[in-house]
Specification:
This protein is of the alpha/beta class and 469 residues long. The protein has a domain at 80-110 and 225-425: Rossmann fold (3-Layer(aba) Sandwich), CATH 3.40.50. It is built from 19 helices and 15 strands. Strand 6, helix 7 (171-178) and strand 7 form a beta-alpha-beta unit. Helix 5 (112-127) packs across helix 10. The structure holds pyridoxal-5'-phosphate and the ligand N[C@@H](CCOP(=O)(O)O)C(=O)O. Pyridoxal-5'-phosphate binds at residues 110, 142-143, 222, 254-261, 308-309, 387, 411-412. Pathway: Amino-acid biosynthesis; L-threonine biosynthesis; L-threonine from L-aspartate: step 5/5.
């Protein structure tokens, strides 16, 4: 399988190359040259497979020759063996039409583990084939950071520099990152910065020759294609349980950087019968505005009880715009340059109409989030986190045909956001035993000004050079 950049001018790479490259050299994002497609019979034959086997089956076309089928399967067994639930991403029924897909049974209690546990192993596998060292520079609004750190802590040939906006992640999220004291882990709390600022610094570093000449910069954010690839699998796992390929399923996805819901789009392109993808935002609603009326303009970020979705520049939306705009990299490069200059752009008619065929969107304010948390608790006995609540709110008002099951992606464990859950329900969710001593652990984190030069200097003083020797 070959990967091409959404902006058309970076060299095409194979899966190994795209995984290690992260961002394309023209500033675009890598996507497969074409979507692999499964027939209905091939999808039906996946029913009942254990998660790791299903994962290998769904991902093999994307991986191509970079890994043998046996090796891919071994890596999947290792990655998903660390989950605390046998089903890895179990389903819970809420009522006659609504379901929760629980994505928080991995080591750091959020959906990011599903992809990052595998990505850590892929880095190790691919770096082991050369003398190359990787300098991962990442941005997090709370969950990617801890999942990435868990996945690469202590691994040879990888350093990770993870930026979060100081004071804008929950205490649990921060501690999950800062209490990992492995020498290759570097946490940076950026002063006066939003997640969007952190993400912009990551992207700038990929195009800073002074850095890329010395260091092999790598990505763990969803700009890295391998992240999305691994997330496609759970759409298959769930739809198969609910009757696919014979029956359609709709998904409601709490959305910030558009990675998780883009994985649902990929699953549909691969032949999964996805009836609708509901893009659920909090009040940081750039995606809701873009899908509702074509207005993709960056507002300022408002802190909410769902901090991981406090995002106003939604990285992976570019991948959708590329696909819906006829895969014209030059045209998209011009459109994105306009956005970067003006902080605003209008979707083209083709992009708007293409998106409307599959996507719908909804924005939840603080009150709607709290009501959804309360509804799940009082009616179904389920404690849900505020991100999941945005999507459950959206799922319940989306007006999906009652014969179609609607699955809300439960992206984080409620104990990551105990205050918001307790305010809404009167119940304070406890941390699972495996992270029960989080508040007793020592923290290590550098506070750094939220400016590119300060971060680049911090990284340059500590990262390993590109290659050994
Ligand atoms: C708990 C949680 N839910 C939802 C999201 C949004 O996912 P995405 O950025 O893939 O749209 C995030 C962060 O990305 C998150 O951490
Ligand atoms: N919500 C994310 C933001 C980063 O998104 P990513 O999926 O691109 O890594 C977080 O929790 O850090």
């Amino acid at each position: 399988m070959e990967y091409v950049s959404t902006r058309g001018s970076a060299p095409a790479l194979d899966f190994e190359g795209a995984t290690l490259a992260g961002l394309a050299s023209d500033g675009g994002l890598y996507v497969p040259r074409e979507w692999p497609r499964f027939s209905a019979a091939e999808i039906a034959a996946m029913r009942g497979l254990p998660y790791a086997q299903l994962a290998a089956r769904v991902m093999q076309p994307f991986v191509g020759d970079s890994l043998s089928a046996e090796r891919l399967q071994e890596l999947c067994e290792a990655a998903y063996g660390r989950f605390s639930h046998q089903a890895v991403t179990p389903l819970v029924q809420l009522d006659a039409q609504h379901w929760l897909m629980e994505l928080f049974h991995g080591p750091t209690l959020a959906f990011k583990d599903v992809a990052l546990q595998l990505l850590g192993l892929l880095f190790e596998e691919f770096l082991g084939r050369s003398d190359r060292n990787l300098t991962i520079v990442g941005a997090t609004s709370g969950d990617t950071g801890s999942a990435a750190i868990d996945a690469v802590a202590g691994r040879a040939k990888v350093d990770v520099f993870m930026m979060h906006p100081k004071g804008r992640v929950s205490d649990v999220q921060r501690r999950q990152m800062t209490t990992v004291l492995a020498p290759n882990v570097h946490n940076l709390a950026l002063e006066d910065a939003s997640f969007d600022d952190c993400q912009a610094i990551v992207k700038r570093m990929f195009n800073d020759r002074a850095m890329t000449d010395r260091f092999a910069i790598g990505a763990v954010n969803s700009i890295n294609w391998a992240r999305l690839m691994a997330q496609v699998v759970y759409y298959f796992a769930t739809a198969l349980q609910l009757g696919a390929p014979e029956r359609e399923v709709a998904f409601s996805v709490p959305t910030g950087n558009f990675g998780d819901v883009f994985a649902g789009y990929v699953a549909q392109q691969m032949g999964l019968p996805v009836a609708k993808l509901i893009v659920a935002t909090n009040v940081n609603d750039i995606l809701h505005r873009a899908l509702a009326n074509g207005d993709y303009s960056q507002g300022s970020v408002t802190p909410t009880a769902a901090p991981s979705m406090d995002i106003q520049v939604s990285s992976n939306f570019e991948r959708l715009l590329f696909d819906l705009g006829g895969r014209d990299g030059a045209a998209l490069a011009t459109q994105m340059a306009g956005f970067e200059a003006n902080k605003a752009m209008q979707l083209t008619n083709a992009q708007r109409e293409g998106a409307a065929a599959l996507f719908t969107s909804c924005r939840a304010d603080a009150d709607e989030m709290a009501k959804a948390i309360r509804w799940a608790w009082e009616n179904c006995g389920e404690l849900i986190d505020p991100h999941t609540a945005c999507a459950l709110h959206a799922a319940r008002i989306a007006g999906i045909d009652p014969s179609i099951p609607v699955v809300t992606l439960a992206t984080a464990h409620p104990a990551k956001f105990p205050e918001a859950v307790e305010r809404a329900t009167g119940r304070r969710p406890g941390l699972p035993a495996r992270v029960g001593d989080l508040f007793e652990r020592e923290e290590r984190c550098a506070t750094v000004p939220g400016a590119y030069e300060a971060v680049a200097q911090y990284v340059a003083e500590r990262a390993s050079p590109k290659a050994d020797g």
